[in-house]
Amino acid sequence: MPAPSHSALPPPPASAGLAGVWQAFKRAAVSQCHPAMLFAVLLPFLIALVGAILLLWFCWAPLTEWLRDEASHWSVVNNVDEWLVAVGLFSLKVYLVPVVAAAILLPVSGILGLAIAAVFVMPLVLRHVGEREYAAVGKQGRYGTAVSVWNALWVSIVFALGWLLTLPLWLVPPMAVLLSVFWWAFAFSRMMRIDAIVEHASPEERRILLRRHNLGFWSVGLICSLINLLPPAWVFLPVFSALVFAHYGLDALQRLRQEKVIEMAPR
Asked: What's 170's DSSP letter?
């Protein structure tokens, strides 16, 4: 029987697009209910909690003292504070300094929890979903641990510096919400997308996936950052986001390899 011609072959599978993002969230919600994934929630949450306690214990007093000293040189803050006190309302500095200190310290503990989830929890996530739903997707990645650690390190540094440098813009409504959403979307997408595919995708496949599905990965990161605005989500979001990115990344890799099979079919 003659081999099928290349023109008779079906076209390569289309990118999943936004439908793939929605599908990844649905699959992640199901995976999150598994006992193993429920237990995995504890690790990044406990580390972030301990990190927050240590930061508050050791850094709160010197940080608030430094902020009060700096605030005393800000003419705008001084003028507003004097006016509020004069009309008998409250002192702006009394509330501003603790809020700014919390806005600095809490995200540091949050990015620490996300980095822990990316480096240590993501392998558990990949093993869980890989064996159940993506068994046919073989592992072709190289230097996965080194790539994951380096990626988590530089993303955490950029996130921390970007958060601190743009903190003064929070005084301009509604930049506080917009900047928070942007930086967490950056952290989720840049950190988790690499870890989701580093074990299974070869370096060439990884480059193709990141270029082709850049919008999809950013969409997942944006949705996770919006969920992150709700404080109760901080407990489960590091692991849940890892599940979403794992489903989205492995599904995209599976589609890519299906395309390769079609392209390599005999004429």
From this structure: G
Q: Report the alpha-carbon distance of residue 174 to residue 138 in Å, rounded.
A: 46
Cα 177 to Cα 32: distance, rounded to the nearest angstrom? 28
Largest CA distance in the chain: 94
Per-residue model confidence as pLDDT tens digits over 87-131: 666 665 666 778 788 888 888 888 888 888 888 889 889 999 988
Report CA 39 to chain centroid distance, whole Å: 20
- Report which of 250, 263, 215 is spatially closest to residue 141, judged by C-alpha positions: 250
- Could you report the per-residue pLDDT of 12-51, keeping only the tens digit for each? 444 456 778 999 999 999 999 988 898 888 888 887 788 7
Contact of 48 with 256, CB cutoff 8 Å: no
* Domain range annotation of the chain: 19-133, 138-262
29: helix, coil or strand? helix
First to last CA, the chain: 13
Q: Are 142 and 188 in contact (CB under 8 A)?
A: no
Burial 152-168, CB ≥16 within 10 A → b, else e: beebbeebbeebeeebe
Helices marked H in the chain — which ranges? 17-32, 35-40, 42-71, 75-86, 92-116, 122-133, 144-165, 175-197, 203-212, 214-227, 237-263
Contact 11, 239 (CB under 8 A): no
> Which residues lie below 8 Å from residue 16, measured CB to CB, with a gap of 6+?
23, 216, 248, 251, 252, 255
Contacts of residue 101, defined as CB under 8 A and 6 or more positions apart, other chains included, come to 60, 63, 64, 67
Asked if residue 34 lies in contact with residue 128, where contact means CB atoms within 8 angstroms, the answer is yes
Whole-model pTM: value is 0.81
